[in-house]
Amino acid sequence: MKLSTPLSSIKGVGPKTEEALMGAGLKTIEDALVYLPRRYDDFSEVVSIVDLKPGNVVVRARCESVSTRPVRRGMRITTAVLADATSKVKAVWFNQPYRETQLKSGKEFLFSGQFVFQYNRYQLQNPSVEQFEESDAAPQASSSKIVPVYRHIKGIKPKTVQDLFNQLRVFMEFIPETLPDWIVQGQGLVGRAEAIRFLHFPDSSSQVDRGRERLAFEEIFEMILAAQLNKQDHAKLTGWQIPFDQPTVKSFVESLPFNLTNAQRRAAWQILQDLESPHPMNRLLQGDVGSGKTAVAGLIARQVAQAGLQTAVMAPTEILATQHAETLSRLLEPFGVNVALLSGSVKSRPRQEILSRLVSGDIDVIVGTHALIQRGVEYHKLGFVVIDEQHRFGVKQRQALLEKSQFMPHLLSMTATPIPRSLALTLYGELDVSVLDELPAGRQPIETKIWSPTSASKLYESIDKEISGGRQAYVICSLIDENPDNDRKSVEAEYRRLKSTIFYGRKIGLLHGKLKADEKDAVMRQFAAGDIDILVSTTVVEVGVNVPNATVMLIENADHFGLSQLHQLRGRVGRGEHKSYCHLMMSGNDKPSNRLREIESSQDGFYLAEVDLKLRGPGEIYGRAQHGALNLQIATLADVKLITRAQEAAEEFIKKQEDLVQYKHLARAVSRYQRLTTLN
Fold this sequence. Notes:
Elements lengths: L14 H9 L5 H5 L5 E4 L12 E18 L2 E9 L4 E7 L3 H6 L5 E10 L2 E11 L14 E4 L8 H11 L12 H6 L5 H9 L4 H30 L11 H10 L6 H14 L6 E6 L5 H14 L3 E5 L3 H15 L6 E4 L5 H13 L4 E4 L13 E7 L6 H8 L7 E6 L5 H5 L6 E5 L10 E5 L4 H13 L3 E5 L14 H12 L5 E4 L5 H12 L5 E4 L12 E6 L7 H8 L10 E5 L8 H8 L3 H12 L7 H4 L12 H16 L8 H14 L3
Parallel strand pairs: 4-6, 8-13, 8-14, 9-11, 9-12, 10-11, 12-13, 15-20, 16-18, 16-19, 17-18, 19-20
Antiparallel strand pairs: 1-7, 2-3, 2-5, 3-4, 5-6
Helix pairs in contact: 6-7, 7-22, 7-23, 8-10, 9-10, 10-11, 18-20
């Protein structure tokens, strides 16, 4: 047998089991060997029930009684009373009715899980269950073993999975090494075969840690190497060489109605230096909401126009594109730079006129949505591309825009989502990064406060007072429609409730993702014009129009949002001369989470992004839905130390001019990541 042998060749894997395994993506022996446990139960420290303390615990007990009952649609709770020689304890499982049959056998079990205080009592919550056997030879757990727990495979019992791995253990010795020896030894890592054996059959928690370290390093190394190879390839391309024109830049800066921050000056200088290179720029400009990214883009567009080249600015929504077009027109048209807007709503003759002026070179700066990359849109000399909120565009969409130039244009990606350093090294490793970490002078901090539902009436009074003073408010809900199985507020129900009761007589608007694009734009235009007092919306306003008169942001069920998203939503207010407020309404009257305390006490988006990454993972920071799953089984993108080690190894790999073809597994993984992120 080989690693490529189908699992159907293994004893005990019949047609039904094979079908279930294939449903989980496990077809070959190698597939199974890299199907790693999701966690481990450490049965080496069993405690008596009388000695239980809150936290992760393991107890050895028999079940005295067990029952299952439905509590609401789609939810069943199994409750059991467990006993040992010292005392008794209650255990509960959610949607695991099979536990009742398992525990009625009267045998002794090891229960591993969280011992928590809930519903006015201490109880074991969702503990894993292993039949206790004195003999170490048995496949079940004993008091001296660390037992791997695998993700559930539909149609297969956990014991069947464990039996399968017992049979596959011999094949672990044949797993090939995927990294160069000098990396494995230099980084103090165990070999790949040993790492996988440690993870499936650990003798100690330290073996689990060493196995995880090795595979996590490999995952991060693959990602960073792909990014650096992309960067290397990009540096070989030919782009437009645009010399620095000091008088042009100086006159633009002096014309601004505000002073550039030091961060803006630093970022602009980095970009201007990139333009002088014969190779196309590939830079990310990240800055908090209101940090002045558009002004920097305008400065560069002025320099590009002076060189006789065109700029294209692509935004994710029509209203944001309109906002950018208005801002850039104000900044650039006094210098004779022609700015135009092209979006889906521009039709017929006006559209043909813009397309004609664009291809003739009469338009210097074109701002738009996906309309900029549609067939039939041609450019005279496209030298500079700006993509705002770039993680919201897929790679193919960005490539389509870049391909509309005879030379590779310079690319500036902009995002208001602060990107943690670890993501900048991995997911954005092929990009040079500029950071706007200062807010313009005069921007007031936004007062942020956590509220519980019992104090809602006082909150609504304060909001009404703001509206009476001529200001406007956002109310954000996470759901569009009501869901009886969910305690979160829906935007439709909240709109009706506020309109008919608390804010009766106020002008209230409704905005969510199910509305047509022109309907969404119409609502946002009304709000921007002051024709709506309160906009009840989902998170579609996270990237939206600038409304300086809006001073109140109320986020319902704030405990269900990530920190970065809460910070983004908060950034919708505080954009004018008036003091602004962000109210975080919790789902219940419990003590606020540490996450909400963080957003309440900090206005620093970069700090909050780091905290959010540790709490929730990369998620939409990268735009996973558009780029494909990262497929990280072990590594966490919050592990800056490991990422730094992997980065150094990747740089050394390239410096040594290692032949990637020699490492087949590594080459496949690197190629996949290159396809996910490349802009070439």
